[in-house]
């Protein structure tokens, strides 16, 4: 008998028919809500992917995020600079601002120091050296090429004047007349021009009356300086050098001087300080008078501009009324300016300009027009004596 081929196999099942796999269960809302994260059916539909052309460039966004801290770091570095760095920067600016070719850039850097709040009491002397070097430039502050930069620099310097001492404030006020007010007289804005003229009038009114001593000092300064240097300049320089070399107390006699003598020495020191203050006041007044004469000359040169004429008339007339506040040489200059203005007024009223029109300003034209008008409060309303408006007026 042959071996059994089905030996060792499990017995056959009772249901030998093929059964198809069961259909997937129908999910209800409650079933979806109760499913866990391991469920095969996602609870939220996947987002639709957009075109790659519409996506932001990842490298560009990364660069933008990386550049943001750099900007803030640069800002902190510029504002949190140490005092030594600010002093070093001010020294460099003062050395370059004397050069007319570098003046514009140096002036803008100085303005940035003011805007950043770097000008403080500890470094105010270094910043004042920048302004002093700017005024020592060979190019005048009213030169057209540097006029705007001078105006911006000294206008901004007024925001830092609280950190200057009294002597520096007085000097800055004089420089502002030269660099700001004088440059405003070149403007094409009638409001700015009138404002500058008002400031000049106020400055003239604040000047004290000139004394004979001022006239004498002015006459001495106008002499030929080269002759004085050739005659005694070398001797004076030698004496000054010897004074600097001498010791204060070479023989040790200060201990033997009585107290009364020391007190008198202190009084002499106080007198010397008072004299220095008086000399400084005279120096500032001299510079202010000179600056105001310069402003008057600039204004007089603009007399050909029609809308400037009335303001200039009032300004030069005010200077002529207060001519005693100037020195002898300056009084002559003011009187010549006023005589020139009056001559041009006469020519403007009687003569004719190049275009053939009467050379008068708007105020004088209206004054001349209405001086000949016939106006009656009883019989007429029109400007020329007609009665065209009587009917509708009732």
Automatic annotation (TrEMBL):
Q: Where is the composition biased (Polar residues)?
A: 31-42, 57-66
Spell out the residue ranges making up region: Disordered: 1-77
- Superkingdom: Eukaryota
Pro residues compositional bias, start-end:
9-26
Query: Under what name is this protein listed?
Result: Uncharacterized protein
| Organism in which the protein naturally occurs | Pisum sativum
């Amino acid at each position: 008998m042959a071996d059994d081929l089905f030996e060792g196999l499990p017995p056959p099942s009772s249901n030998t028919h093929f059964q198809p796999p069961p259909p997937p269960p129908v999910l209800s809302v409650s079933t979806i809500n109760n499913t866990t994260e391991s469920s095969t059916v996602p609870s939220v539909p996947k987002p639709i992917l957009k075109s790659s052309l519409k996506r932001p460039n990842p490298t560009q966004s990364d660069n933008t995020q990386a550049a943001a801290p750099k900007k803030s770091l640069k800002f902190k570095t510029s504002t949190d600079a140490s005092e030594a760095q600010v002093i070093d920067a001010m020294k460099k600016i003062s050395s370059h601002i004397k050069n007319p070719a570098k003046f514009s850039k140096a002036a803008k850097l100085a303005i940035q120091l003011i805007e950043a709040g770097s000008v403080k009491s500890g470094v105010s002397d270094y910043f004042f050296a920048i302004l002093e070097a700017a005024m020592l430039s060979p190019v005048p502050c009213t030169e057209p090429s540097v006029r705007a930069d001078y105006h911006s620099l000294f206008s901004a310097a007024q925001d830092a004047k609280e950190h200057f001492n009294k002597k520096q404030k007085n000097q800055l006020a004089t420089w502002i007349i030269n660099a700001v007010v004088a440059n405003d007289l070149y403007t094409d804005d009638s409001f700015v021009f009138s404002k500058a003229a008002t400031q000049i009038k106020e400055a003239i009114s604040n000047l004290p009356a000139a004394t004979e001593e001022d006239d004498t000092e002015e006459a001495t300064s106008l002499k030929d300086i080269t002759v004085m240097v050739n005659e005694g300049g070398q001797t004076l320089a030698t004496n000054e050098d010897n004074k600097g070399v001498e010791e204060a107390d070479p023989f040790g006699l200060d201990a033997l001087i009585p107290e009364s003598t020391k007190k008198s020495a202190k009084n002499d020191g106080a007198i010397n300080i008072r004299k220095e203050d008086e000399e400084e006041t005279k120096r500032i007044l001299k510079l202010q008078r000179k600056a105001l004469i310069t402003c008057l000359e600039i204004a007089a040169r603009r007399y050909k501009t029609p809308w400037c004429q009335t303001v200039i008339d009032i300004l030069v007339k005010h200077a002529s009324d207060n001519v005693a506040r100037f020195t002898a040489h300056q009084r002559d200059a003011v009187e010549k300016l006023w005589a020139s203005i009056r001559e041009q007024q006469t020519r403007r009223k009687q003569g004719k300009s190049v275009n053939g029109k009467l050379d008068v300003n708007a105020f004088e034209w209206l004054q001349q027009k209405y001086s000949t008008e016939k106006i009656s409060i009883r019989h007429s309303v029109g400007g020329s004596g007609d009665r065209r408006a009587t009917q509708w007026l009732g």
